[in-house]
Amino acid sequence: MAYEIPVTQARAELADLINRVVYGGERVVVTRHGKPLVALVSAADLERLEALGEPEDERVISSVPSIGSTSTSTSTSTTGHDRHRFGIAAEHRGPEVR
Any idea what the Cα angle at residue 42 is, between residues 11 and 87, rounded to 5°? Predict the structure, then answer.
């Protein structure tokens, strides 16, 4: 059974949650308005999930190269299909240049 925590509380307790996952073997589900958003699992759990196999048309995002980047190139923008697939409702576009 996974431990559920609201996103606002998870943000404040991230270091503790990581320790619970890594050292306590727990799985943590972060929720927003009671709906699951993401799950924190150990690297060993992730390896087991990946070993089960993925459909060939699915990709796993292994890292985020830059957070808070203000780049507006089309190669890094999220397509409408990806936003729907990953449940992304909004996209940061950076400050407008006037």
Answer: 55
